[in-house]
Amino acid sequence: MANDLFFSRNTRVMVSDGTTTWEIPVLDGFSFSQATNASEITLNEMAASGGTTSRRARQMFNDSYAPAEWSFSTYARPFASTAAATGGWEDTGSDAHVHAVEEALWNGLVGNAGFTPSSGATESVWSDNIANTTTTCTIDFEGSNLVTLKTYDIYFLMGSGTIADATHQAYKLTSSVVNSAGIDFDIDGIATINWAGFASLITEIPATNVPTVTINEGTSATNNFIRNRLTTLTTTGNTAEGSIVGSYTLTLTGGSLNFENNITYLTPETLGIVNQPIGHVTGTRNIGGSFTCYLSNSAAGSADLFEDLIESTDVVTNDFNLVFDIGGTSAPTMQVTLPTCHLEVPTHSIEDVISLEVNFHALPTTLNNADEATIVYKGVTV
After folding, report:
1. pTM of structure
2. 286-312 burial: b if 16+ Cβ within 10 Å, else e
3. Do the domain assignments include residue 244?
4. Does some domain include residue 106?
5. Which candidate, 52, 63, 126, 324, has a CA 20 to 30 Å from the CA of 190?
6. Are 306 and 318 in contact (CB under 8 A)?
């Protein structure tokens, strides 16, 4: 009887651009679903002749499929690639470039860059947004001012053992797009990224139609996890007329970072058929989050930050440079730099030890730019 059941722990997730397929290890709690938009027609009549009867029926019509929704979480796992590794990023290239297991998802979040796999002595390369060197993997948002973003096919393969139609269940999420990524600073946890997005359609496919994984380097390593407890924050007021200028020494107790594309889908409304979503468009890019720290009256501490913010009644938009060194400064790490942040006035949390929570909003230098954030991975050899 148990052979007829599928367990979430036996599920594998693959992301494919049609040429390259990455395996993405996910955590428990993944989901995907698709709903139907329907119309209801009801009758509302007065009494028929005789005064005792009245039609009270209704009809339902399927109008369209809503865009499919998916979500899952991954660990942040950077590493230095190895030449000619099975399932690796590099073929016979001599440079051990830094990559991340979840790198393809970042590409989907920040743009629509294409990927050229490694060939011979040539290293693999993204056409935009992601730069891999022997020391870092850098992800920026400079190319994200786009109407549409990169789409992938995402595959959920359920079941254990050798792939066969009789023992596996497979689903394909066609034309999937990454809408958001969130990073929570759980002080005793491992750096985790919560991904969410949309797709045009969910279909059941034979397990043998799931594409063969071409890149899975780093997925089985145990030394490329990032520990949140080592995370530090550097907070600096930028020098500008009318802004708060100064550096503050803050030790985090928690927080979060969120990257949102605010994507919407376009769906036709043709009568007589069940319409399917035909594509997506991007909305306002929204990057921000919050951090918490203890209330401290040490020099340039959190009490000074609160005082400077609450007393700056002539500053309409303040300007801070925030640098989160997630996992510290020694690899494996992920550094997130938000060079132009607007900070809200901190709120006090009255507990055993009084703390402050600060909400922040990453802004571009001008409305035409897309320079709100830069993410830099440092990896270890696996």
Report:
1. 0.92
2. ebbbbbbbbbbeeeebbbbbbebbeee
3. yes
4. yes
5. 126
6. no
